[in-house]
Amino acid sequence: MNFDPVLLASRMQPMKAQGLWRDETINLYFQRALEQCPDKPAIVSYRAGLDDPIRLSYRELGERVDRIARGLVALGVGPADVVSWQLPNCWEFIALALACARIGAAANPVMPIFRQHELNFMLNFGESKVFIVPQRFRNHDYEEMARGMLAGLPHLRQLVVIDGEGDDSFDKVLLRDDTPPLSGPELGPDDIMLLMYTSGTTGEPKGVMHTANTLFSNLHAYTKVMGIGGDDIVLGASPMAHLTGFGYLAMLPVILNSTTVLLDVWDPKRALQIVRDEGVTFSMASATFVADMCLAVENGEPTSDKFTLFVCAGAPIPPVVVERAHKLMGLTVCSAWGMTENGAVTVTEPARALEKSGCSDGRPLPGIEVKVVDAAGTELKTGESGELLMRGASLFAGYLKRPQLNAVDADGWFDTGDIAFVDDEGYIRISGRSKDVVIRGGENVPVVEIENLLYKHPAISLVAVVGYPDRRYGERVCAFVALKPGCSFTFEDMTAYLTEQQVSKTYFPERLEVLEQMPQTPSGKLQKFKLREMARQFGEAKSD
Asked: What's the per-residue H, E or C state across 362-412?
């Protein structure tokens, strides 16, 4: 694969001169753990339906990573090849990421919610050589789905099934004893280590490329501001196929030589039990996770005095959640804002969390700059809302095969697509989005893609998908449609149609509104702001 990381060259000299890019890969940190604390717990992996977790020391994890790396090489995977996996939070997820780094391959985790429609595009666009899936997860047969896709994946050399019973099972293919020792090159600090797809305004996912230098520069700055280290025990409940999970819950504990405790299916009561049993001290996820735990505590679930720090990202945190978490659990909840393209850009320091987390999205991490500009690119004054730009060490290496979409100007400023303002202390607040994306429970909903699919339905003449406020998820999704003469279209019709299109149910609108006439400008452009105003009433009515 020719990744063509066009956004790296101009930053290499200044980032390395400033010590922001340390030229250290995950291999270095993992090797340090194997040498200095081999018997320390590395991963504690809880699975739904099983009482006892899988526990792996760094030594045991190292043995499995070595086998997996050798197994990938035996399949013909090498430097700059892409290895994809669709897994929940489990030890195999982290081991695969480490194995890819050992042989110079790019890790490409994809969300378990994706179905054939999304997967066919991602695996073909990234030219994935290997695809690893669970046999089943949450009542979905991933093995059957993946086998049905094979004819349409010409680049794929091997499907691997965790808990499978055939010759392509994970144990038989990637945990073999008879593969030769490793001898090829490892991942370099400026090689692409991570390919992660993100939904945007183009209607198709974009492949975000990160190196060890771009990703780890963010993690180092983050640990310094948050004050976490090797003695912390991290709860990994947010999906690791998002950058939050991959960076801060999978890679960060390895960098710190600490322990990560994984939970594959979110259950707040079980999560709190795990927090107590394992001595968890820190986690990061969307505000929904914190709200759920608060409710469980109010219903009688005990807390832990060791669990003291939680970072919320993905959507603004309601102030009441910050206050409830502190009162009920003694938990300091810090706000953060970022993107797949750049990791956590801003965070609220723990010392200011009670004061600022509910009304801001934090201040820039070391090595990152932000500014708010108007439509002409002029920087705005404190308190004035405009387009949010960022630049710095953690900015990605570019979009795979789509450098024209990188949105970075000659001075290195990246257009985030968000609307924000900066207060007089330098804290930002996201106040809107210029990009056409709805964020539901921290999950980006690809609005344009859903609209394009609905447009293909024979009954629909016009469609617009917008978000409306929701107390639990931040936003929910409403589809407004205008119909062709003599046609009908119900909510049940919509869900059946999207199911036929093999779209992830996570992207289904929760509401359908059929309008006789859609609001439009004289030129015929849909006035989405009017539809958002209409949809906002649904959220307000629900809150009442």
From this structure: CEECCCEEEEEECCCCCECCCCCCEEEEEEECCCCCEECCCHHHCCECCCC
Which residues, 6 or more positions from 415, have their beta carbon under 8 angstroms from its beta carbon? 387, 389, 407, 408, 409
Per-residue confidence of the chain (544 residues) as pLDDT tens digits?
899 999 999 999 999 999 999 999 999 999 999 999 999 999 999 999 998 999 999 999 999 999 999 999 999 999 999 999 999 999 999 999 999 999 999 999 999 999 999 999 999 999 999 999 999 999 999 999 999 999 999 999 999 999 999 999 999 999 999 999 998 899 999 999 999 998 644 457 899 999 999 999 999 999 999 999 999 999 999 999 999 999 999 999 999 999 999 999 999 999 999 999 999 999 999 888 998 999 999 999 999 999 999 999 877 787 888 999 999 999 999 999 999 999 999 999 999 999 999 999 999 999 999 999 998 999 999 999 899 999 999 999 999 999 999 999 999 999 998 889 999 999 999 876 666 668 888 887 878 788 889 988 999 988 989 999 888 888 999 999 999 899 999 999 999 999 999 999 989 999 999 999 988 755 556 788 889 889 988 766 655 4
Element (H, E) at 227: none
Show Cβ contacts of residue 483 under 8 Å, excluding neighbours closer than 6 positions. Answer: 459, 460, 461, 489, 514
Cβ–Cβ under 8 Å, residues 291 and 472: yes
Laid out side by side, the sheet with 368-373 consists of 368-373, 386-392, 414-422, 428-433
Q: 212 near 24, Cβ under 8 Å?
A: yes
CA distance 419 to 417: 7
Q: What are the two backbone dihedrals, phi and then psi, of residue 143, each rounded to the nearest 5 degrees?
A: -60, -50
- In the CATH hierarchy, which top-level class contains the domain 58-187? alpha beta
Query: Beta 206-211 vs 158-162: how paired, if at all?
Result: unpaired
Instruction: For the beta carbon of residue 72, count every other beta carbon within 10 angstroms.
Output: 28
Q: How far apart are CA 269 and CA 267, in angstroms?
A: 6
Q: From CA 359, how far away is CA 348, in angstroms rounded? A: 10
Burial track 370-379 (b if 16+ CB lie within 10 A, e otherwise): bbbbeeeeee
Domain range list for the chain:
58-187, 438-543
Please, which residues have CB within 8 angstroms of residue 226's CB and are 6 or more apart in sequence? 282, 309, 311, 334, 347, 349, 350
pTM: 0.87
Helix (H, G, I), strand (E, B) or coil at 341: coil
Written as one string, the DSSP assignment of 4-49 is --TTSHHHHHHHHHTTS-----HHHHHHHHHHH-TTSEEEEEE-TT
Q: Which CATH number fits domain 438-543: 1.20.120.10, 3.40.50.150, 3.40.50.2300, 3.30.300.30?
A: 3.30.300.30
What letter would DSSP give residue 318?
Answer: P
Q: Do domains 58-187 and 438-543 have the same CATH topology?
A: no
